[in-house]
Amino acid sequence: MVILILNSGSSSVKYQLWDTKSTGMLAKGLVSRIGIDNPKLEHRAGDKKYDYCPDGKIDHNDAVKLALDALVDSEHGIIENIEQIDAVGHRVVHGGEKFAESALITDDVIDAVKECIPLAPLHNPPNLMGIEACQKLMPNIPQVAVFDTAFHQTMEPYAFIYALPYDLYKTQKIRRYGFHGTSHYYVAHRAAEFLGKPIEKLKIITAHLGNGASMTAVKNGKSVDTSMGFTPLEGLVMGTRTGDMDPAIVMFVMEHMNMTPADANNFFNKKSGILGISGKSNDIRDVIEASESGDMQAKLALDVYTYRIRKYIGAYAAAMGGLDTLVFTAGAGENSPFIRRKIIRNLEFLGIKIDEQKNESAIGITMDISTDDASVRTLVVPTNEELVIANETEQIVSEI
Ligand code: ADP
User: How far is it, in rounded angstroms, from Cα 4 to Cα 104?
Assistant: First the structure.
């Protein structure tokens, strides 16, 4: 089945074309600077490269059209016409409590995604724009929504309810939802497959350490707790997000630094985290470099970042009553032996021990980096959210 995978954000649309029967990914691209000046298409199909800068401003409909035109172009395209696309799979950030699974897009599904806009005001509207553009440009092709929140819908109320008046859950839908679900789902399943063990019998902690970062406790194949919460702000220290902190800081900062709720939202989401502590960069690579040249704030940022992850490993081992497998994924998780080494320091008591040589050589590949005698298998597993979206889309569309 030929599937177009779309990740439609506020100012960019990322796409991949997959053939699930044979080669996997056929082409991929990015349309950036939507709604502002100098938009750009970057398209790649095998070794064919095509960059194009359209005149004037473009909207999401134009962006999807640019992607489709590139895919069918006689020179740098990969298919002959749009009809060769069997289905479209969309990444949708928030499915609220309505979606514990992916869904075929219907008017009812669109209404339900719209209902979740207050929960994800920055993400769901552009996701919907991508869906609407595809409905317009490919009206006869079935579309599927794959939700970032769906995998975490298995959490028990004691893990997802905040200690607020219960009414807020009922009336405002305030609870822990969790995000990055597609990635946690994928790496947990891939880890079980790699170890040759049934996921139903494993206690796994997955650490997705990209610019946004989250951890999940996956017990017997189900998400039982996750570090992101009502929004992606909670949990780990991230590139520019605070993660966990005393909520009283919000009121204090608003009062003493004269911030509106919008200012505070921006401050805690965009100016904090690794960038905030280091005062240098949100990119861990830059901060490692600065730390190695003696920058104390950079060193502190890495200490706070890795200590928070270590605490969550302990917490989730307790939440699951044990631990079989620890999985590192995404940017730093897949590519940084230094960060992994720093995180697992002093966790021998849990059975986590890594072989330094294996750790050093596990860069962007699936690998067991534990020592032979460790009782917990520590794995590096590159994430592949697109593969999950392609599989889910294929499965749902083939059942129509
Ligand atoms: P995103 O979260 O934007 O989807 P990634 O999962 O690719 O992106 O993560 C990007 C982040 O991963 C970078 O900002 C950087 O902090 C971190 N990263 C990537 N490669 C390395 C590396 N070799 N060493 C340390 N950190 C890295």
Answer: 14
Q: What are residue 29's phi and psi, to 5 degrees?
A: -170, 175
| Ligand 1 lined by 211 (C-beta under 6 Å) | yes
Residues 29, 22: Cα–Cα separation, whole Å? 20
Task: Specify the ligand 1 atom closest to the Cα of 212.
Answer: 2
9 lines ligand 1 (CB under 6 A): no
Give the CATH class of 197-380: alpha beta
Q: Are strands 24-32 and 143-147 parallel, antiparallel or unpaired?
A: unpaired
Q: How many CB atoms lie within 10 A of CB 328?
A: 29
Distance, in Å, from the CA atom of 295 to the CA atom of 308, rounded to the nearest integer, reads 20
pLDDT tens per residue across span 206-237: 999 999 999 999 999 999 999 999 999 999 99
Protein residue with its CA nearest to atom 3 in ligand 1: 211
Residue ranges covered by each domain of the chain: 2-147, 197-380
Cβ(199)–Cβ(189) under 8 Å?
A: yes
CATH 3.30.420.40 describes domain 2-147: yes
Active-site annotation holds for 148: yes
Query: Tens of pLDDT along 155-204?
Result: 999 999 999 999 999 999 999 999 999 999 999 999 999 999 999 999 99
Does the CB atom of residue 26 touch ligand 1 within 6 A?
A: no
Q: Nearest-CA neighbor of 383 among 333, 342, 338? A: 333
Cβ–ligand 1 distance for 214 under 6 Å, the answer no
Q: Residue 243 in contact with residue 234, Cβ under 8 Å?
A: yes
Catalytic residue among 148, 225, 324, 368: 148
Q: What is the pLDDT of residues 306-334, one digit of tens each?
A: 999 999 999 999 999 999 999 999 999 99
